[in-house]
Design a protein that fits this description.
The chain has 249 residues and is an alpha/beta fold. It is 19% helix and 27% strand. It catalyses: 3',5'-cyclic UMP + H2O = UMP + H(+); 3',5'-cyclic CMP + H2O = CMP + H(+).
């Protein structure tokens, strides 16, 4: 399983779109790895998590072929995770040479936002599928279970437990401290890679996002309760530091 981090920034990106602070100015001058984009990841080139406004830039920067992506899982509808209108670029007239539909999975709000932007799209190009909490979607070569996040009280936000090729990834953001139901579901299971929200970095914990201390606490509990495979890695992303990469904890 190859996990490609396309972007690891929080909603503002780094540098911020309008920001003129010293740090953003330095990032613009240095460029390269100092430029961070809104978060998304792709697994083995065919399974994508979230569709942020930076997706087109990710395609150009990393030479991606999004025509190969068969399954797109949306964590929630915040603007840095879902630009639903851009999915219309997969419909006839805009895209040619595609040999199957893109299945877009999300909970209530995500499906509703996509419907608002796309109506009822051509099912040979796009299929919108509601995934309920604790439901497992079988994509044919992966199994993806939707777990509850602790993020926005106004919508059902999702985390994903992804099993593919004998490996397991826990995609754990955006979220604050994990809900009890999520811990209960993970009991007795093991992950090879854990990806956690760390939007607050060294700032105080706020509840809807994690900071370093809270992320380490989740790692330590998963380790203590046998939820990490022997060689598991835990990385934190979605936080504004001057590197478009992740940090292992």
């Amino acid at each position: 399983m190859i996990v490609h981090f396309l972007g690891t920034a929080a909603a503002e990106g780094f540098p911020g779109v309008f920001c003129r602070c010293e740090h953003c100015g330095k990032a613009r001058t240095l460029g390269g790895r100092n430029i961070r984009t809104r978060s998304s990841a792709i697994i083995d080139g065919t399974l994508k998590i979230d569709f942020p406004p930076d997706t087109y830039m990710h395609v150009l920067r990393d030479g991606l072929d999004l025509g190969l992506v068969r399954d797109l899982f949306i964590t929630h509808t915040h603007a840095d995770h879902l630009l639903a209108s851009e999915l219309a670029m997969r419909l006839p007239v805009f895209a040619r040479g595609l040999d199957g539909p893109l299945r877009v999975y999300g909970h209530d709000a995500a499906v509703r936002v996509c419907r608002g932007a796309l109506g009822r799209p051509d099912s040979e190009r796009l299929q919108l599928r509601r995934i309920a909490l604790f439901e497992t979607a079988d994509t044919g070569d992966a199994r993806v279970t939707a777990l509850p996040a602790n993020h926005d009280p106004d919508e059902t936000c999702l985390l994903f437990w992804i099993e593919k090729g004998g490996r397991t990834v826990f995609y754990g953001h955006d979220t604050g401290l994990l809900p009890a139901e999520t811990w209960a579901w993970m009991a007795g299971r093991r992950a090879d890679l854990v990806i956690l929200d760390c939007t607050n970095g060294n700032l105080p914990f706020t509840g809807s996002h994690l900071n370093v201390e809270a992320a380490i606490g989740i790692r330590d509990r998963m380790r203590a309760e046998g939820m990490l495979a022997p060689a598991a890695r835990v990385v934190v992303t979605h936080f504004p530091i001057t590197s478009d990469s992740c940090m292992t904890i």
